[in-house]
């Protein structure tokens, strides 16, 4: 919670700088995971780490991070997606990492698949990467089924986080035992890096 406001301010500043630049845009949508909460700074989150790798590889991508700590899928749909739409045709890549907050409390879960399905209808086809949910409850499996169907149509690419377990995250969680630490975010950056089109990824392999 102590990181929420300073990280939001840091991304606001970074976004303004990115929008003054030139080159194709990568727009990140989501919640605290895309803010990088749990890392020492926004550069240590998965978005910051992956963008750093891309820059070092010679990628032309600028990043604008519209994620908000605490956001649920409904918030991404109602508030972040319209901001994305206003950025126009210069958006070359959209990433979405959201849905964890829809799993708590359990009463929220039943709405998550519908919100994800609706969100996918307003995202740019062929330019969107969405993370699957690692959880195995009925709602998470239904969300993943929505993603699999959209990926099968070529509408999105999936950054697949399925298969994660508590044991597999040992040593990768921050002090709050919920968000990743920088090691955990590095692994998430690895997952997303495999989805970046070659023409956007720069000269050297990630």
Provide a compact summary of the structure.
The protein is an alpha/beta fold and 206 residues long. It has helices at 4-20, 32-35, 46-56, 73-87, 112-120, 138-152, 182-193, 198-201; strands spanning 25-30, 62-65, 91-97, 128-131, 156-159.
Q: Can you describe this structure?
A:
By secondary structure, this protein is α/β, with parallel strands linked by helices. 42% of the residues lie in helices and 12% in strands. The chain contains eight helices and five strands; from the N terminus they run αβααβαβαβαβαα. Strands 2-1-3-4-5 form a five-stranded parallel sheet.
Strand fraction? 5-15%
Write down the overall mean pLDDT. 92
The best one-word shape is globular
What does the oligomeric state look like here?
A: single chain
Tell me the total number of β-strands: 5
Terminal CA distance: 32 Å
Instruction: Encode the helix/strand succession as letters.
Output: HEHHEHEHEHEHH
Low-confidence segments, given as residue ranges, are: 166-170
Largest sheet data:
5 strands, parallel
Provide the fold topology.
Layout: H1 4-20, E1 25-30, H2 32-35, H3 46-56, E2 62-65, H4 73-87, E3 91-97, H5 112-120, E4 128-131, H6 138-152, E5 156-159, H7 182-193, H8 198-201
Parallel strand pairs: 1-2, 1-3, 3-4, 4-5
List keywords for this structure.
42% helix, alpha/beta, 5-stranded parallel β-sheet
């Amino acid at each position: 919670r102590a990181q929420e406001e300073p990280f939001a301010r840091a991304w606001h500043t970074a976004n303004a700088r990115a929008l003054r630049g030139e080159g194709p845009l990568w727009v990140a949508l989501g919640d605290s995971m895309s803010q990088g909460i749990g890392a020492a700074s926004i550069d240590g989150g998965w978005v910051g780490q992956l963008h750093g790798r891309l820059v070092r590889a010679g990628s032309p991508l600028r990043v604008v991070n519209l994620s908000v700590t605490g956001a649920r899928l409904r918030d991404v749909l109602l508030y972040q997606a319209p901001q994305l739409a206003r950025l126009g045709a210069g958006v070359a890549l959209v990433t979405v990492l959201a849905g964890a907050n829809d799993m708590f409390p359990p009463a929220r879960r039943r709405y998550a698949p519908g919100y994800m399905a609706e969100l996918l209808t307003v995202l740019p086809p062929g330019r969107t990467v969405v993370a699957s949910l690692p959880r195995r409850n009925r709602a998470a499996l239904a969300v993943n089924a929505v993603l699999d169907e959209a990926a099968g149509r070529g509408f999105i690419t999936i950054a697949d986080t399925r298969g994660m377990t508590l044991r597999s995250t040992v040593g990768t969680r921050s002090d709050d035992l919920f968000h990743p630490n920088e090691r955990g975010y590095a692994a998430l950056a690895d997952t997303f890096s495999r989805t970046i089109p070659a023409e956007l990824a720069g000269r050297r392999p990630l």
